[in-house]
Amino acid sequence: MQPLAGGAGGVQVLLPPLSEVFWAGLALAIIVGALWKYALPKLTSLLDERSAQIEAGLRASERAEDELATARAHAAAEREQARTEANQLREQARAEAKDIVAAARVAAVAEGERVREQFDAQLAASKAAAERELRGDVGRLATELARRIVGAELSDPDRAAAVIDQAIEELERAPIKRPARSEA
Q: Where are the transmembrane segments (predicted)?
């Protein structure tokens, strides 16, 4: 290399003196050695701890994702089960409603039959009462008529009953004659 100054005794700018290079190299080696011995293990332990924390966080995140997926699947299964149960309850309610309607129809038919039978019994009782009353009225009329025609008093109840029965039989056998209507 050439010195910057023009002469042989000039100052070299690019090359420092050898003693400075030695001391600078020694200082650099001491600093690097101290860093290597003291700072680097702490730095690597900090990096290892940070790396372990990150890995633990990743594992926790994966576990959380797995748990979330499991929880979602479980929730979906529960929703499906709830839908199934709701459908079963609806079907059961419909069946019960049909049973209730059928029972109500049966009860209504039975009540109608009971009312009809009660009406029939009441009608039969009314008919029997009307027949008894009519027999009594016809019997009195027949007795009165017989007394007037025959001129005899029918005070004997057996004889009066026989005359009444005979008159009723004749009335039942006789056709009912209705007066002819005149057309104008």
A: 21-40
